[in-house]
Design a protein that fits this description.
By secondary structure, the protein is of the alpha+beta class. The chain is 38% helix and 37% strand. It contains five helices and seven strands; from the N terminus they run H-H-E-H-E-E-E-E-E-E-H-H. A five-stranded mixed sheet has the order 1-7-6-3-2.
Length: 173
């Protein structure tokens, strides 16, 4: 891959991460391939498991709903061939229930808002095809995020709040 293509692929990969926090719906059509797959969608809402821009947009909405002030700091970007790796820090404030879904799409776990902030490192791996993101994988510090947000270790009161929030989410689904 020549340096121009590599530079374009890097910029596209970085934008695909940043737009999760601030992108408009139409931008997802310009960045994400219609057949794109998010390999990290196994705990996301059913709408986020849809291929292409619609699924990636649903992931962004899911994250933005639970976490205000959502943002990413980009630390390193490396490209080789059609693969781009991006090391980031994701940050935000937990302001609404964060709903984790089971494989069948049902509500599995709900974390009621704590109002706390978090900042955790992540690595995103993106495959680029036809100038668009077609595949995404991530390695995230979920335990670090859960600890910073007060989900782990849970207090008895927080466990009761989780049960109540899960009941509400299931009724709403």
């Amino acid at each position: 891959m020549n340096s121009t293509v590599s530079s374009d692929a890097k910029a596209l990969a970085v934008r695909s991460i940043l737009m999760m926090a601030d992108g408009e719906r139409a931008e997802f059509d310009r960045v994400v391939h219609p057949a794109a797959v998010n390999r990290e969608d196994d705990v996301e809402p059913p709408a986020a498991r849809t291929p292409g821009p619609e699924g990636f947009w649903a992931t962004a909405v899911w994250l933005r709903t639970a976490f205000a002030e959502l943002g990413y700091d980009i630390h390193e970007v490396v490209a080789e061939g059609n693969m781009v790796a991006v090391r980031t820090t994701m940050r935000g404030r937990h302001v609404a229930p964060f709903v984790v879904h089971a494989e069948d799409g049902s509500v599995d776990t709900v974390f009621p808002p704590t109002g706390r902030t978090f900042a955790v490192t992540q690595s995103h791996w993106l495959r680029i095809e036809d100038g668009l993101v077609i595949e995404h994988w991530a390695n995230r510090d979920d335990l670090g995020q859960a600890t910073q947000l007060g989900w782990v270790p849970p207090t008895p009161i927080y466990l009761m709040k989780m049960a109540r929030a899960k009941s509400r989410a299931r009724k709403a689904a």
